[in-house]
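Q: I'm writing a short methods note and want an example of a predicted protein-small molecule complex. Could you take the sequence and the SMILES for zinc ion and return the bound structure as tokens? Please keep the output block clean; save any remarks for afterwards.
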Amino acid sequence: MRYPAAVWSGPLPTTNYEPGGMGTVNGLVLHIEEGTEPGTDAWFHNPTSIVSAHFGNPKSGPLQQWVDTDDMAYAEVNGNPNWISVEHEGNSGDSLTASQIQNDAELLAWLFRQYGFTLQVCDDPSGQGVAGHVTGGAAWGNHLDCPGAPIMAQRQSIVDKAHTILHPATDPIMEVLNVSITDPEFAVRFLFRFCLHREADPGGFTTYVDGLNNGTLTLDQVMADLQDSTEGQAVIAAERKAIGI
Ligand SMILES: [Zn+2]
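A: Understood, no commentary inside the block.
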């Protein structure tokens, strides 16, 4: 698929990607270009480079897309079939600009709607979420400085922004919840029934109640977590089907 908010910059030479090569998408891998957006664009269009990424994120301005998400980019070796790749203009050690974080969050929200992986920071190459090139170690080409520690540490803010995009604070249901529920135990029981149509399991109940009590979680985050889970998405899909939308 082509991401509607990106500038299409393909197709690349077919030496540099595999048409139709994507398998199950586990999430998004962040890379650093070690250079400029125009330089990376030129390298990916060079048929002898044998490298590519699905997306490029300049320090300012919109994303560009080089490879359709149905096709496999050559970005992280053994990770290629299962991860969407995004390059970032700059050098290892840089932090992402506000524009780059916003672009990544919007891309992540769009990818989540298409593929339904778990929205979280991911440090396991066989997990799901937002990883970095470094996450795959030797099996992903041993690029241990890609994208660099500062950007790896910015992944949580990308995930948080994606949750906000998917569940805006103006959501009328959350407004109602925020003004009417002040007891964390009641809130968690309510949100499990509301989002998953079942009682809270003991592990989930304790985790969310503790998070609400010690301030590391908000009601918005608990609700987003439940709705964005595989189970929550299945409930939403069944509800939509039942009412014909
Ligand atoms: Zn990389």
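A: Remarks, as requested: The pocket of zinc ion is lined by residues 31, 133, 143, 146 (CB under 6 Å). The radius of gyration is 19 Å.
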